[in-house]
Protein backbone atom coordinates (compact mmCIF):
# COMPACT_ATOMS: atom_id res chain seq x y z
CA UNK A 1 0.00 0.00 0.00
CA UNK A 2 1.61 3.25 -1.12
CA UNK A 3 -1.05 5.48 0.44
CA UNK A 4 -2.25 6.72 -2.93
CA UNK A 5 -5.65 8.32 -3.12
CA UNK A 6 -8.27 6.08 -4.71
CA UNK A 7 -8.92 8.79 -7.34
CA UNK A 8 -5.27 8.98 -8.39
CA UNK A 9 -4.48 9.03 -12.10
CA UNK A 10 -3.27 5.45 -11.73
CA UNK A 11 -6.67 4.29 -10.42
CA UNK A 12 -8.54 6.26 -13.09
CA UNK A 13 -6.37 4.69 -15.79
CA UNK A 14 -7.05 1.25 -14.29
CA UNK A 15 -10.81 1.85 -14.36
CA UNK A 16 -10.72 3.16 -17.92
CA UNK A 17 -8.56 0.28 -19.13
CA UNK A 18 -10.14 -2.58 -17.16
CA UNK A 19 -13.90 -2.13 -17.46
CA UNK A 20 -15.71 -2.19 -20.79
CA UNK A 21 -18.98 -1.44 -19.01
CA UNK A 22 -20.33 -0.53 -15.60
CA UNK A 23 -21.62 -4.12 -15.48
CA UNK A 24 -17.99 -5.32 -15.41
CA UNK A 25 -17.17 -3.13 -12.43
CA UNK A 26 -20.36 -4.21 -10.63
CA UNK A 27 -19.47 -7.84 -11.32
CA UNK A 28 -15.96 -7.34 -9.94
CA UNK A 29 -17.42 -5.82 -6.75
CA UNK A 30 -19.68 -8.87 -6.31
CA UNK A 31 -16.80 -11.30 -6.83
CA UNK A 32 -14.55 -9.30 -4.47
CA UNK A 33 -17.23 -9.36 -1.76
CA UNK A 34 -16.53 -13.08 -1.27
CA UNK A 35 -13.12 -13.78 -2.85
CA UNK A 36 -13.00 -17.41 -1.75
CA UNK A 37 -16.27 -18.22 -3.50
CA UNK A 38 -16.51 -19.42 -7.08
CA UNK A 39 -19.75 -17.89 -8.35
CA UNK A 40 -21.87 -19.91 -10.79
CA UNK A 41 -22.97 -17.85 -13.79
CA UNK A 42 -26.66 -18.14 -12.82
CA UNK A 43 -25.91 -16.58 -9.42
CA UNK A 44 -24.08 -13.68 -11.07
CA UNK A 45 -26.95 -13.13 -13.52
CA UNK A 46 -29.34 -13.02 -10.56
CA UNK A 47 -27.15 -10.74 -8.40
CA UNK A 48 -26.44 -8.31 -11.25
CA UNK A 49 -30.00 -8.50 -12.59
CA UNK A 50 -28.36 -8.71 -16.01
CA UNK A 51 -28.63 -10.98 -19.02
CA UNK A 52 -26.45 -14.05 -19.37
CA UNK A 53 -24.59 -12.43 -22.28
CA UNK A 54 -23.80 -9.30 -20.23
CA UNK A 55 -22.39 -11.48 -17.45
CA UNK A 56 -20.44 -13.59 -19.95
CA UNK A 57 -18.90 -10.52 -21.63
CA UNK A 58 -18.07 -8.97 -18.26
CA UNK A 59 -16.41 -12.16 -16.99
CA UNK A 60 -14.41 -12.47 -20.23
CA UNK A 61 -13.17 -8.90 -19.88
CA UNK A 62 -12.19 -9.41 -16.25
CA UNK A 63 -10.39 -12.67 -17.09
CA UNK A 64 -8.50 -10.89 -19.89
CA UNK A 65 -7.55 -8.18 -17.40
CA UNK A 66 -6.08 -10.70 -14.96
CA UNK A 67 -8.69 -10.00 -12.28
CA UNK A 68 -10.87 -13.12 -12.42
CA UNK A 69 -10.43 -16.81 -13.12
CA UNK A 70 -13.05 -19.18 -14.47
CA UNK A 71 -13.15 -22.62 -12.87
CA UNK A 72 -13.74 -25.88 -14.78
CA UNK A 73 -17.46 -25.72 -13.94
CA UNK A 74 -17.63 -22.20 -15.54
CA UNK A 75 -17.99 -20.45 -12.19
CA UNK A 76 -16.03 -17.22 -11.74
CA UNK A 77 -13.79 -16.25 -8.83
CA UNK A 78 -11.93 -13.07 -7.95
CA UNK A 79 -8.24 -13.91 -8.35
CA UNK A 80 -6.02 -10.97 -9.29
CA UNK A 81 -2.93 -12.12 -11.16
CA UNK A 82 -0.66 -9.97 -8.99
CA UNK A 83 -0.94 -7.84 -5.81
CA UNK A 84 -0.93 -4.55 -7.71
CA UNK A 85 -4.21 -5.55 -9.42
CA UNK A 86 -5.76 -6.27 -6.04
CA UNK A 87 -4.72 -2.83 -4.77
CA UNK A 88 -6.06 -1.09 -7.87
CA UNK A 89 -9.29 -3.08 -7.63
CA UNK A 90 -9.75 -1.97 -4.02
CA UNK A 91 -9.10 1.65 -5.03
CA UNK A 92 -11.57 1.38 -7.92
CA UNK A 93 -14.23 -0.14 -5.65
CA UNK A 94 -13.67 2.58 -3.03
CA UNK A 95 -13.90 5.35 -5.62
CA UNK A 96 -17.03 3.78 -7.13
CA UNK A 97 -18.64 3.68 -3.67
CA UNK A 98 -17.79 7.36 -3.10
CA UNK A 99 -18.47 8.75 -6.59
CA UNK A 100 -20.56 6.28 -8.59
CA UNK A 101 -21.75 8.83 -11.13
CA UNK A 102 -18.25 10.00 -11.99
CA UNK A 103 -16.96 6.43 -12.30
CA UNK A 104 -19.90 5.46 -14.54
CA UNK A 105 -19.24 8.48 -16.79
CA UNK A 106 -15.56 7.57 -16.99
CA UNK A 107 -16.36 4.00 -18.08
CA UNK A 108 -19.00 5.09 -20.60
CA UNK A 109 -16.75 7.80 -22.06
CA UNK A 110 -13.72 5.57 -22.31
CA UNK A 111 -15.85 3.13 -24.29
CA UNK A 112 -16.95 5.81 -26.73
CA UNK A 113 -14.97 8.98 -27.35
CA UNK A 114 -11.99 8.45 -25.07
CA UNK A 115 -11.71 12.24 -25.03
CA UNK A 116 -9.25 13.49 -22.44
CA UNK A 117 -11.37 16.59 -21.85
CA UNK A 118 -14.46 14.51 -21.17
CA UNK A 119 -12.36 12.28 -18.92
CA UNK A 120 -11.16 15.28 -16.91
CA UNK A 121 -14.71 16.67 -16.70
CA UNK A 122 -16.00 13.39 -15.25
CA UNK A 123 -13.79 13.86 -12.21
CA UNK A 124 -13.90 17.62 -11.74
CA UNK A 125 -14.68 18.16 -8.09
CA UNK A 126 -17.90 20.10 -7.61
CA UNK A 127 -17.33 21.69 -4.24
CA UNK A 128 -16.56 18.45 -2.41
Describe this structure in words.
With about 130 residues, the chain is mainly alpha-helical. It has helices spanning about 10-20, 20-35, 40-50, 50-65, 85-100, 100-110, 115-120; strands at about 70, 75-80. It has a two-stranded antiparallel ribbon with strand order 1-2. A hairpin with a 5-residue loop joins strand 1 and strand 2 (about 75-80). Helix 2 (about 20-35) crosses helix 4 (about 50-65), helix 3 crosses helix 4 and helix 5 (about 85-100) crosses helix 6. The longest helix is centred in the last third of the chain and has 16 residues, at about 85-100. The radius of gyration is 15 Å and the shape is globular. The mean pLDDT is about 85.
What's the layout of helices and strands?
Layout: H1 9-18, H2 22-33, H3 41-48, H4 52-64, E1 68-70, E2 76-78, H5 83-98, H6 100-111, H7 116-122
Antiparallel strand pairs: 1-2
Helix pairs in contact: 1-5, 1-6, 2-4, 3-4, 5-6
Which geometry do the CA atoms define? globular
Q: Give the end-to-end Cα distance, rounded to a whole number of Å.
A: 25 Å
Element string (H = helix, E = strand):
HHHHEEHHH
The helicity comes to 55-70%
Q: Specify the number of helices.
A: 7
Biggest beta-sheet profile? 2 strands, antiparallel
Q: How would you concisely characterize the structure shown here?
A:
The protein has seven helices and two strands, in the order H-H-H-H-E-E-H-H-H.
Which descriptors would you attach to this protein?
128 residues, mainly alpha, two-stranded antiparallel ribbon, 5% strand
Amino acid sequence: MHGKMPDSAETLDFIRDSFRSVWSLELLCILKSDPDRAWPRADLVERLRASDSVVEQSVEGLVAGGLVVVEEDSSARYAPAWPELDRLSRNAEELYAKRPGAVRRLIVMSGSSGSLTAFAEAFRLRGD
